Amino acid sequence: MTTQSTEQVIRETIDRVLTRVNALSEPGPGYTRPSYSDLETLAHAVIRDEAEALGLAVTTDAAGNLLARMEGQDRSAPALHVGSHLDTVGQGGAYDGQAGVAAGLALAAALKAEGQVPPVDLVVIVTRAEESVWFPASYLGSRGHLGRLTRADLEVARADTGRTLADHMTAQGLDPEAALQAAPPRPAHFIEFHIEQGPVLDQAQEPFAIVRGVRGGLRYRNAQIHGTWAHSGGAPRDQRADAVFAFADLVTALDAEWGRRLDAGEDLAVTFGRVDAASPVHAMAKVPGELEFCIDIRSEDDAVLDAMDGVLKDMIAGIETARPGIRFELGAQSRSRPAALSAGLGDWIAEGATARGEAPRRMLSGGGHDAAAFAAAGWDSVMVFIRNWDGSHCPEEGMDPADLARGVAALHAAVLSGAALPEMP
Amino acid sequence: MTTQSTEQVIRETIDRVLTRVNALSEPGPGYTRPSYSDLETLAHAVIRDEAEALGLAVTTDAAGNLLARMEGQDRSAPALHVGSHLDTVGQGGAYDGQAGVAAGLALAAALKAEGQVPPVDLVVIVTRAEESVWFPASYLGSRGHLGRLTRADLEVARADTGRTLADHMTAQGLDPEAALQAAPPRPAHFIEFHIEQGPVLDQAQEPFAIVRGVRGGLRYRNAQIHGTWAHSGGAPRDQRADAVFAFADLVTALDAEWGRRLDAGEDLAVTFGRVDAASPVHAMAKVPGELEFCIDIRSEDDAVLDAMDGVLKDMIAGIETARPGIRFELGAQSRSRPAALSAGLGDWIAEGATARGEAPRRMLSGGGHDAAAFAAAGWDSVMVFIRNWDGSHCPEEGMDPADLARGVAALHAAVLSGAALPEMP
């Protein structure tokens, strides 16, 4: 039974944590805390402060992730981890990551305020480096916790500084070699609250949902089109190698393919997040000879990602043939695998919601999240999506803390329901 | 009759002028002399030095254009002006503009070396501010000479400094008000040698050609597409307002329209010289909510430009309907009228070429040039195109000075042929 005062503790904790964390940012608009930056470390220190005030035992792992543990009734059972990350994209929003950490602390605060002991250990977990816009590699922080970092990961350069992950970890007082050697912890339960990053719940007027899976991604972060510079009035159409027209061919062809595959029932999303034909050499009176772009293809089905990589390359070959002088260079591919999340853990939370008169839908996550890394490592891992609007990864990113509080209250009800947590997978 | 030593003087003058002018540039790659910059003024001083060494009478007009006069046999007839400009685009090439100035000086040097007096006054003319990439307005320097500057022109801001034309003129020791008040000079003859800025002559293996007209231009220099920022994995396809996909729709639609109009015999060129979806807010994991671009549409037929402006706006309306949330903002339009050049003056030069065993083709200029401004002001104006390769408006811009020398020799032969210059239009 969630009392009125419990709801108040949940809500106050959420508001306070969001305010304290978001006070730490590079100058706006929006919020900017790069991965493995001083600002990310300061945000972790806020959570340490909050957790210690609740009497939780705080540790950090070799990769700099923070774990704040409240002892449960059964100390030998796999612990229930609740958390997310505190780094942001550049000029990001107030909730992506932060909301999931606030949720974990709010649950712990509610249990403490009531004098309740959870059935198993509750661990508020704060990961590092979830936003791969900084280090172009997926889930570096959570993979660090899971003993799944590779030596290649340590050499990845941060986009803004050009310095390696190892370098940035060292600058934050961490030992990259120790993170590399870290033994995988025993798999446990992991729940991540996160804004939806899409309009589905907002349009359906639903406060939160259970996430059944996380899309995987296929990315070319530094693709280029090489053509031929020419005068905009002087070059005949059939002798141009115009990088912008070639790019438009690709976008239009992939747009049509995307529509066809959705119609066929496949899951797919295609985004060109960055297009750059705006160097000092580009000018109105010049046929553009160069264009840089990135492409992000996502699906819940790895086979669709494989197929789309082939389609992309076939399309490029076709454009190169149709436009002599045009040459695409896709550059390095990065890939994250789709992850099915725990139906059992989702049901367990949903039962808590049902007890409170809520009926959260099951849905898919378009974005990649730490929960996918935990699932891939054999953890019993699930997400709760919170309604959001005005986009995500942007200063306008909207969320009502009351919606997050309703989700946390559902989890709180599940924790106190006496219902058994799922068996580990 | 052009002797071997005359050809040598022409060639040596061309080489020396190109070398001296191109020594004046911002750091490379390529050559950068902004309009109404110190570097442009220094380049004009080189021509003053060269012209005075030939004994020509050098003056400048209120807009800072340079005129170097060699007296002719008939001092009362309209003078024969030969020249071009010395400003460049950013990171431009070694010949655009420079070649036309070198040609004028080479003709004067050859006549001086031979002790010949031209039938009418020969004026080597060096204009200012032809490259509208700096001040977004067409033919500012030559319009200044022609008494056609407007007060609005004086307020145009230079793209790199943000300071007005009036400001930059003043900084170069000029009086903008005097330029504004300048009386139009008596119309005369104007010949501009210029690289082709296209591959036609190079592919046909022809050294030079007579230009029968200059395409006009319809431009939107600062167009924008506004959409909605969203997460690249989270936003369903049918609810996105993706600025990049909207842009690709426009490019693809205009590409098809361009092909249809060429097939129908119309003259048209379409270029998106600059595309910018690469701000700090743009990122791989974001559906792009903003894109900036410029569009440059050219034709020898003003009616085609008018029609294309309508087509462009209809296409935009269609895209906005098909993609809710997308809004185009074309911004200010700038326009230059197509110009028919002087068939009579072209024939007069061609006869000089014929006497030397050359058969220059007649062709169209895709790029706008000062010759169009002179033609618009009632001058007897024509251009000679020189074969070029590897593009123009770029560091790689190629031209063989020997080709330019062959064109100048043709003009030299015309000057000495005794054939009358055309009547003024």
From TrEMBL, chains A, B:
Keyword Hydrolase set for record: yes
Binding site for Zn(2+) 1: 85, 96, 194
Keyword Acyltransferase part of the UniProt annotation: no
Needed cofactors: Zn(2+); Mn(2+)
Cofactor note: Binds 2 Zn(2+) ions per subunit.
GO molecular function terms noted in the UniProt entry: hydrolase activity, acting on carbon-nitrogen (but not peptide) bonds, in linear amidines; metal ion binding
Enzyme class: hydrolase
EC number(s) recorded for this UniProt protein: 3.5.-.-
One Pfam family this sequence matches: Peptidase_M20
Chain positions recorded as Zn(2+) 2 binding sites: 96, 131, 393
Keywords tagged on the record: Hydrolase, Manganese, Metal-binding, Zinc
PANTHER family in the record: ALLANTOATE DEIMINASE-RELATED (PTHR32494:SF19)
Family: Belongs to the peptidase M20 family.
Quaternary state and interactors: Homodimer.
NCBIfam families linked to this entry: hydantase (TIGR01879)
Protein name: Hydantoinase/carbamoylase family amidase
